[in-house]
């Protein structure tokens, strides 16, 4: 049986998402955000979601729309407030969404740890600050480090540039950002790509996310401008 | 009397006899002092502007925490690429020799101690080098730590670029930060719109002041005691 992870549409790509799920969403600013997949989750009706993403959405579409819908009860991110993050800001001010603020490097390393089977790690980032409160601090070679635990998700939504039917991925420029670590850290990794290429066409030396980390691929043809 | 215009474009310190630098001039002065060959991260705010005014003749490699080494200046509007933005979510270019990588590698560079220098913004800096730049504690303005704590803990050197006082005229260089810390004791040098100040074990040392500013005036806008470097110079930027 040939392996074929390509699914026909967004609904098939996000099939199985359910209430209470934890969802990783790739992207940094407007680069690399899987907007079509996010709207797929929105259309699915799933609620009580926890979102893990660097930002909390801007404008009126994509992550901002998901948060604005009231379906996200908790967000784990490093930088929620940006120009245009009004939908998040309002829910946060009203106490309608829980925020776990995580330093950006700790955020990506916690995902990497989850994907790599690492149970936890000590980092100097955040030592002596409010974000290390309640966490174990240990001294190694005269320097304090704080214990950080892995971060997993039920579902990762990732945007990449090209994929093949096995799910090998390459990304484009700074749109790579969190994609590769999120793909490793979720039970189900779903990727939207601008191009699907035949198996064997990608340079094996250049593949960034190997197929083993990917479960579903959907080709999104209309590369439209989003209000994000 | 000089016209004394602040970065916000409003007249300040009227009659004080000195002119504040613009945000771009603060960035330019810091950029001039970056050692040749350095790998440097530019934080959100004034530091980001430095990418557009890097000194000619030096090869300095700019790192952006969203996965870029070799960040170049902003492109012409027609050349914008929505997959190529910096940590401030602004369009940038890539220099020859530049590379892209995953976020966890971007932070391995930071947390692994590979970066020579990070230029960061600040809400407050204390005389001992404590930095506060991620939250005001006001729920109307959600906090945003981004990569600041990683950079503060991981880069070999931290320079802060900031206005010298708040919009209300309160000192941003303080005896002790009243806002939550980003990291304790990390700031090595402070570039403001009126001075360049080194954080040393012996206290704050003024290296440069804008023309017309006196140490006494600067002290009234700065909480910790200042000493003037013997070889201090006027802070003049193109």
Q: Helicity level of chain A, as a percent range?
A: 10-25%
> Treating each run of at least 4 consecutive H or I residues as one helix, how many helices of chain A?
6
Rg of chain A, nearest Å: 18 Å
Q: Give the overall pLDDT of chain B as a whole number.
A: 93
Using the CA coordinates, give the radius of gyration of chain B. 18 Å
* Helix/strand structural class of chain B: alpha/beta
Termini gap of chain A: 41 Å
CATH superfamily descriptor of chain B: Glutaconate Coenzyme A-transferase
* Total number of strands of chain A: 12
Give the name of the CATH superfamily of chain A.
Answer: Glutaconate Coenzyme A-transferase
Question: Oligomeric form of this entry?
Answer: heterodimer
Shape of chain B: globular
Mean pLDDT of chain A: 97
Write the layout of secondary structure elements.
The complex is a heterodimer of chains A (228) and B (238).
Chain A (H helix, E strand, L loop, with lengths): L5 E2 L2 H4 L8 E4 L9 H10 L4 E4 L10 H6 L3 E6 L8 H8 L4 E4 L2 H13 L4 E3 L13 E4 L2 E6 L4 E11 L5 E2 L8 H7 E11 L19 E4 L9
Parallel strand pairs in A: 1-12, 2-3, 2-9, 3-4, 4-5, 9-11, 11-12
Antiparallel strand pairs in A: 6-8, 7-8, 9-10
Chain B lengths: L22 H11 L5 E4 L3 H4 L11 E4 L3 E5 L20 E8 L2 H9 L5 E4 L3 E3 L4 E2 L15 H7 L3 E4 L11 E2 L12 E5 L3 E6 L2 E7 L5 H6 L5 E9 L4
Parallel strand pairs in B: 1-2, 1-5, 5-8, 6-9, 8-10, 12-13
Antiparallel strand pairs in B: 2-3, 3-4, 6-7, 10-11, 11-12
